[in-house]
């Protein structure tokens, strides 16, 4: 109730927020994503409006920074958890205008999905953008994103979305930066793979040769040829 009073006091509606997609990719992107998700949680919103936001956020995720792309995927996933009427965007495959079979994978599939997409990205009217006739092929492309966090969030859409699914917490994503994402990957524990050679203690300089000489008498390998 308190949020509804605040929204009505500011005269904020989903249609007003729809053109402001650049607000996500900025210093206040986390706060904007939280407010946007709260705004889209209303059960009285039409399906075409929710689909329009899902398409706009997915297109933004393709070209935005990794922290912004992660926020976009999280908001879309949480909206689909609350509104089953827009889940058809995930299950609907791209269709060719002439009825031909689309490519199944690779860059050719992404190119086909883009050019055959009936969604009008430049249209500012959510009802006229054609989002309900489209599909979220952008999320499928994000599964191959360079950032493991974005790729893992996009992979959530490949599983059944139902009442047992867990919503994505936006608070850790709101403070994510390039540095924190990189540090998160550095802190991951990797499983040691069995090797047929001794792992090097250094990559460059005299330390590499010295370390190999201590492990293998005479240096071994290329050092034995010198």
Task: Please work out how many helical segments DSSP would assign.
Answer: 12
Low-confidence stretches: 1-12, 219-226
Structural class: mainly alpha
The total domain count is 2
Bin the helical content: 40-55%
Distance between the termini: 79 Å
Mean pLDDT: 75
Taken from the alpha-carbon principal axes, the silhouette is: elongated
Proportion of residues in β-strands: under 5%
Main β sheet profile: none
Rg from Cα: 24 Å
Q: What is the tally of beta strands? A: 0
Order of helices and strands: HHHHHHHHHHHH
Summarize the structure.
This protein has twelve helices and no strands.
Task: Provide an overview of this structure.
This protein has 226 residues and is an all-alpha fold. It folds into 2 domains: 185 residues, no CATH class; 30 residues, no CATH class. It has 12 helices and no strands. Helix 4 runs antiparallel to helix 5 and helix 5 runs parallel beside helix 9. It is elongated and about 70 Å long.
List keywords for this structure.
226 residues; mainly alpha; 2 domains; elongated; 12 helices
Question: What's the structural blueprint in terms of helices and strands?
Answer:
Layout: H1 2-10, H2 14-17, H3 29-39, H4 47-63, H5 66-82, H6 88-91, H7 106-115, H8 137-142, H9 148-155, H10 170-174, H11 178-186, H12 206-215
């Amino acid at each position: 109730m308190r949020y509804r009073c605040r929204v009505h006091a500011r005269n904020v509606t989903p249609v007003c927020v729809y053109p402001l997609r650049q607000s996500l990719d900025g210093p206040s992107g986390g706060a904007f994503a939280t407010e946007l998700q709260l705004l889209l949680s209303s059960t009285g919103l039409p399906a075409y409006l929710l689909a329009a936001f899902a398409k706009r956020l997915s297109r933004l995720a393709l070209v935005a920074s990794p922290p912004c792309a992660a926020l976009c995927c999280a908001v879309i996933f949480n909206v689909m958890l609350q509104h089953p009427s827009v889940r058809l965007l995930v299950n609907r495959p791209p269709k060719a205008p002439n009825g031909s079979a689309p490519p199944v994978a690779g860059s050719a599939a992404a190119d086909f999905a883009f050019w055959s997409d009936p969604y009008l990205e430049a249209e500012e009217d959510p009802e006229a953008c054609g989002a309900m006739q489209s599909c979220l092929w952008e999320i499928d492309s994000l599964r191959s994103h360079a950032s493991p966090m974005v790729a893992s969030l996009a992979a959530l859409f490949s599983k059944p979305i139902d009442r047992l699914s867990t919503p994505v917490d936006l608070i850790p994503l709101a403070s994510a930066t390039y540095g924190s994402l990189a540090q998160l990957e550095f802190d991951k524990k990797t499983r040691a793979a069995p090797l047929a050679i001794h792992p090097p203690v250094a990559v460059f300089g005299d330390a590499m040769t010295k370390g190999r000489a201590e492990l293998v008498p005479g240096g071994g390998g290329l050092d034995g040829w010198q």
